[in-house]
Structure formats: C-alpha cells, structure tokens
Amino acid sequence: MRLATIRSAQGTFAARVESENSAVRIDGYADVGALLQENNWREIAEQASGDAVSFGPTDLEAVVPAPRKIICVGLNYANHIKEMGRELPDVPTLFVKFPDALTGPFDDVLIPGYANAALDWEGELAVIIGKRARRVTEADAAGHIAGYAVMNDYTMRDHQYRTLQWHQGKSFEKSAGFGPWMTTSDAYEPGGELATYLGDEKMQTTPTDDLVFNPAQLVEYISHIYPLDAGDVIVTGTPGGVGHARDPKRYIGDGDVVKIEIDGLGHIANRTVFE
Q: Rg (Cα) of the chain, in Å, rounded?
C-alpha cells in the first residue's frame, strides 16, 4: 500500500495511492503524519472510501510534512565512508534535520545567493515510524516501522564544514525533497537500487541493503537514546558518489534537476533555482 499527502485548494489531505496519478481520499486526515497517530492507521487507510482524486507531481506534498523528529544518519554506506576518508563506524553517526527543511518531492528548491557555492546531492532511504518505539530490540523494531520513502539530504557543503557540527549545512529551508509517497513496510523490503541523477548523469548507485546499520538496527539504537514517535523519520545515509568527494568536485548549479530513485519506492525530482 502507498500513502501520500496531496495538496488541494483547501489544504492537504492523506490519500491511498491507486496509480501514478490517482488516489482515494482518506477523510479526516490532513496528511500521512496525522493518519499515523492512529493505532489502527493501516486499517483506516485500507478501508478508506473517500473521493477518487487525480493528482500531478507538484500536487504531492512532503509525505510527512511535519514530523516531530527527523534523525539523519551520516556515514552509513561503506563506499561513501571510504570516499570521505573515514573508518567504518562502531555506532551510527547521528544528526538532526528540522521539518522546515522538507519540501515536496517535485518542488523547486530555492537557494539564496549566500548559500549556492557548494550544493550537493545525497540520495537516501527514509524510514517512517508507525508506532512509538522506546528502548526496543532489533528483533522488535520492524513492528514500529510504518514504511519507507525517498529523500534528498540536500547539503550546503560550505555551511556544513564551517564547524564540526554538520547541522547548518543540512537544514536549509525547503531544500529536502521527500516522497513521493510512503510505501508500507509489508510492501517493501530494502535491497533494490538507489540511484541519484544530476540531469541525465547517474551520480550514485547502490543497493539499499548495503547499509552498515540497517533500519531495524537504527530503530534499536536511536530508541535507546530517546523515544521515536509515530510519524518520526530516520534518514538512513547516502552511498558513494556525492559531488564533494569527486575530483574535480561537482556541485548542483542553477536550473539543475536532481532525481533520486529507489526501486520499489518511486522517485523524487527537484530543480534548484538560484534566488
């Protein structure tokens, strides 16, 4: 099952996706994050019989527009760790992204002039929590995952490396495309290709089961630091092929489109526009 947050003239609403451009409205819920607050969200979505709606790419909002927490994992693919000149970690490297950074899966990303010098792509598998997880085991973690989506952890490298803390390069307003929808955990198993394109050029490619720490291990680890709530998002890290690690370095330019596709989850595509 695929669930989306769709825009309308009256606001947004949660919907069950039936095809690439049609869905059934789930009445009473403004977005997928609101739906996930219900213990029986899956049953509600499966039994929804609201209006049939058609939608285009730009009608899609970030699938969970305002999660309470977005936890990002750095250095979680071996090939990316090596290209950045680091050792394989014993524990996950975590940082946070604020909800203000999220944008629709096909929205333009508007970048101010003071931040456009070193823009980089990071295609990532996003894990969406469906049930509160507090100090859960790896064996039980799967039961707390609602589903999966695609995210671009869009990064301003010059801002990221101003200090030892990465956050300021990772949370620019409306920079991280997120979607196109949530594919529920019973309909997706990590392992398909993650591919990132700059225009028509493939820049990243890796299987999504090549993570150093898989989704269940991340849920276990993070939930022993603080609880994960329904609608929270874990962004699991990016593979090798980022622009900053290339020689010469490659960055996103004005008008460039970054497309990220994960087999079984669909794709997002965001154009960068310099303000």
A: 18
Distance CA 59, CA 186 (A): 26
How crowded is residue 157: how many other Cβ atoms within 10 Å of its Cβ?
19
pLDDT in tens, 82-93: 777 788 889 999
Q: Left, alpha or beta for 255 (phi > 0: left; psi -120 to 50: alpha)?
A: left
Cβ pair 35, 25 in contact under 8 A = no
Query: What pLDDT score does 176 carry?
Result: 98
What CATH number has the domain bearing residue 195? Answer: 3.90.850.10
Assess whether pLDDT exceeds 80 at residue 243. yes
Domain residues for 126?
62-274
Task: Clarify whether residues 93 and 18 are in a common domain.
Answer: no
Which residue type does 21 have? N
Q: Are residues 218 and 155 in the same domain?
A: yes
Residues 253 and 138 in one domain: yes
- Token pair of 214 as six digits: 């898989």
| pLDDT average, residue stretch 41-65 | 98
Residues 31 and 134 in one domain: no
Percent of the chain at pLDDT exceeding 90: 89
Q: Name the domain boundary from 19, 42, 61.
A: 61
The whole-chain average pLDDT of the chain stands at 96
Of the candidates 232, 185, 181, 238, the residue with the CA atom closest to the CA atom of residue 21: 181
